[in-house]
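In this section we walk through a basic example: taking a raw amino acid sequence and producing a predicted 3D structure, encoded as discrete structure tokens. The instruction is simple. Fold the sequence below.
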Amino acid sequence: MAIRFAKAGASLYLVDINETRLSEAANEVRSEFGINVSTYRVDLSRKKEIDGLWNSIKGKESDILVNNAGVYEFVGFLEVNEEALKRSLSVKPKVGLLHVPKMTRGRGDEGGMIINIGSIKSILPFVRNLVHYDMSKMGVIAFTRTFAKEYGPRGIILYNLILT
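The resulting token sequence is shown next.
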């Protein structure tokens, strides 16, 4: 996604919990496309860190937010415990709920655009040992549809991409 936006000439804010991958992605788009890239190491399961991110970009908020965070770990259906479920649900769809108010406040009729990334696996669970992941992605789909119904008329555009 970063590469697609970079090809279009967009400046980027890249956010990840993994500093190594974050740095690699930033260096790749900087060197290939010569665009402005800012990186932020944020644990998106923690509201305090999400608030810190938004505070650090206050006044220069993004026009488009791509919500692609998630926890993808294989755990057998009968072995899913509270901790595995908590890890999975602490990022998706919770992240969308925590980002949307920051994306929409003070924009008037502009609203902004939010792209939530869902998964076909939540509709057609063809991979084993991902019930908790599939639940979290289905939550993203439900969140997107509900939000679009309630807030779409206010000029806030919310998409849900279903990826395989």
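Looking at the output, two observations stand out. The chain is about 45% helix and 15% strand. The chain has a mean pLDDT of 81. In the next section we compare this with other chains.
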